[in-house]
Amino acid sequence: MDRLTRRDVVSGGALILLALLYYLATLELPAGDGEPGPAFFPRLLAAVLLALGVRIVLRGLREAGQADLSELRKPTLLIVATVAYLAIFAHLGFVLSTLAYTLFTARLLGGRGVSSLLVPLVATAIVYALFAVGLALPLP
Q1: Euclidean distance between CA atoms 106 and 115, whole angstroms
Q2: How far is CA 131 from CA 79, 94, 137, in A?
Q3: What are the pLDDT digits (tens) for 13-70?
Q4: What pLDDT sits at residue 4?
Q5: Contact of 95 with 129, CB cutoff 8 Å
Q6: Can you tell me the distance from the alpha carbon of 101 to that of 83, in angstroms, rounded to the nearest whole number?
Q7: Is the N or the C terminus of the chain less surrounded, counting Cβ atoms within 10 Å?
Q8: Is 103 exposed, middle or buried (0-12, 13-18, 19+ CB in 10 A)?
């Protein structure tokens, strides 16, 4: 991979990280009831930054001749799942959103059978017990 394409991959990855951090910062803003609220445009901007970052990374990989786009399916789905998890967390609450997220990622990463169901259930229960019971922190 030459220097220019490596720079595209690194800068695109940095833009993706910035978009995710920016989106996390928008979670403090009210979403609005039935109409776009104060969080609408910042979240839209985060989505645009994320899309541009992915595009830059893909361009760098394609130019390097190393881009088999089928290899990018799982990482892309993980990014989308993480953004979706962040978006639904406040609405569905910790237990439902975390359980859905961990079940999806376990299946995506190759979990099959009972373990792909049991591990997310146990992990969600342990984290809930640690924060809600052990540390007495309120979870949504």
Answers
A1: 9
A2: 25, 11, 6
A3: 888 988 988 888 888 888 777 777 888 888 889 999 999 998 888 888 777 775 555 6
A4: 61
A5: no
A6: 10
A7: C
A8: middle
* Predicted structure pTM score: 0.54
Token look-up 């595209």 returns 8
105 vs 74: CA distance, rounded Å: 9
For residue 26, how many C-alpha atoms fall within 13 Å in the half-sphere facing its CB? 22
The answer to whether 50 touches 83, Cβ cutoff 8 Å, is: yes
Residue 1 pLDDT exceeds 60: no
The C-alpha atoms of residue 34 and residue 47 are separated, in whole angstroms, by 20
In DSSP notation, 46-89 reads: HHHHHHHHHHHHHHHHHHTT---GGGGHHHHHHHHHHHHHHHHH
